[in-house]
Amino acid sequence: MRCRSALTRVDAARTGELNATDDRALRDHLETCRSCGASLADVETLARAAKSLMLAPLRSVRDAAADLVDEIDGVWVGFTKHGLRMIHRGGTLEEFRQRYAQRYGRPLEPGKLTGVLRKQVTDALHGEGVAEPRLDCCESSELERKVMTALSRIPRGEVRTYGWIAEQIGQPRAVRAVASTIARNIVPFVVPCHRVVPATGGVGNYAFGTPVKREMLRREGVDVEALDELAKEGVRFIGSKTTNIVCFPTCKDARRIRKENRVPFHGAAEAIECGFRPCKRCMPFAA
C-alpha cells in the first residue's frame, strides 16, 4: 500500500469501515513507514491542541483537580475520581493547568490528592514502584494505553528496551512510534518510562533530565554504574554457564549469577550460537 492510499484510509480504519484485507495492509504499512508515522503523530498533536479550544468540557470540571505532591522535587498531579490523569515535575500550578488544558481541553482546579492515588504517587517517587497504577486514561489513544500497560509490567529494579516494549504490544516494527509515545508519557514515575533504556546500553535520555532518571533507577535498586560499564563494553545480555540461560543484565535471575559463571554477550545471535536460551522471565530476545 502506498502512502497516499494509506493516509486516506486512516479515518475509515478508526471507525471500523475498512474490510479485513485493507485494514491489515494499512496496519502493516503504518508500522514500517516513518513518513506516515510522523504524519499521524502530527494529526494527534493537532487533535489535542483543538481540544484545548473547546468552550465546554467533556466532563464535569469538578472531576479534575491538581495537587503538589512532592514539594521538594515539585511534582504536580492532575487527577479525577476515576484515577490519575497527568503528572509533571517542575513549574508552577498555572503552568501545570495550562499543560493540562492543552492535553484535555478542560480546566484544572486545585484539589487534595488522598488515599490510594496519593500513595501510588509517593510510592513511585520513593522507588517503591506501583504494581497496578490507577489511571484515568479514557481519552488516551489505543497505542498510549498499550504502551502504558507494557511499561507497568517492567519489574521494579529492572530495565527493558524500546524494542522490547514494541514486541510486548504486538507491534515489533513500530519502535520509533513506541519511543515517541514513551517520551510523551503523561503519567511518569507511576507508569515507569524511566525503566526503558536504549538497546545499545546505558541509561539514555529522559523528559526530566538524565540525572533524574538515574536517581529514580537507583531508588529502585538498579546499579546504574554497572549499566554504564556494560554499555562501554557493548554488552547487552548476561548468561549463566550453569544453566545456559541468558538475561537482561538487570533481571533478578541475572543478578544471582556468581561472578565466575557470568558470560557476557553482545547480541542475541551470539548467545544463540553459543547454545544459550533466553530467560522466560525477562524475555531478552523479544526485542
Explain this structure to me?
The structure is a single chain. The protein is built from 13 helices and ten strands. Strands 3-2-1-4 form a four-stranded mixed sheet. The protein has a four-stranded mixed sheet with strand order 9-7-8-10. The protein starts with a helix and ends in a 9-residue tail after the last strand. It has helices at residues 3-8, 10-14, 20-32, 34-51, 93-104, 115-125, 142-152, 162-168, 175-183, 210-219, 224-233, 252-255, 268-273; strands at 65-70, 75-80, 83-89, 109-110, 160-161, 196-197, 237-240, 245-247, 262-265, 277-278. It folds into three domains: 3-51, no CATH class; 56-222, Orthogonal Bundle (Arc Repressor Mutant, subunit A); 235-287, DNA Methylphosphotriester Repair Domain, CATH 3.40.10.10. Helices cover 43% and strands 13% of the residues. It is α/β, with parallel strands linked by helices.
- CA radius of gyration: 21 Å
Strand order of the largest sheet: 3-2-1-4
Structural class: alpha/beta
Q: In the residues, how many domains can be counted?
A: 3
Q: Tell me what the CATH architecture of the largest domain is.
A: Orthogonal Bundle
Q: Secondary-structure element sequence?
A: HHHHEEEHEHHEHHEHHEEHEHE
Report the uncertain regions: 51-58
Helical stretch count? 13
Strand count, sense and closure of the main sheet? 4 strands, mixed
The number of E-state strands comes to 10
Q: Which term fits the overall shape?
A: flat
How much helical structure, as a percent, in the residues? 40-55%
According to CATH, the homologous superfamily of the largest domain is Winged helix-like DNA-binding domain superfamily/Winged helix DNA-binding domain
Under the CATH scheme, which class of the largest domain? Mainly Alpha
State mean pLDDT (0 to 100 scale). 87
Determine the CATH topology of the largest domain. Answer: Arc Repressor Mutant, subunit A
Q: What is the strand content?
A: 5-15%
Rounded to the nearest angstrom, the distance between the terminal CA atoms is: 26 Å
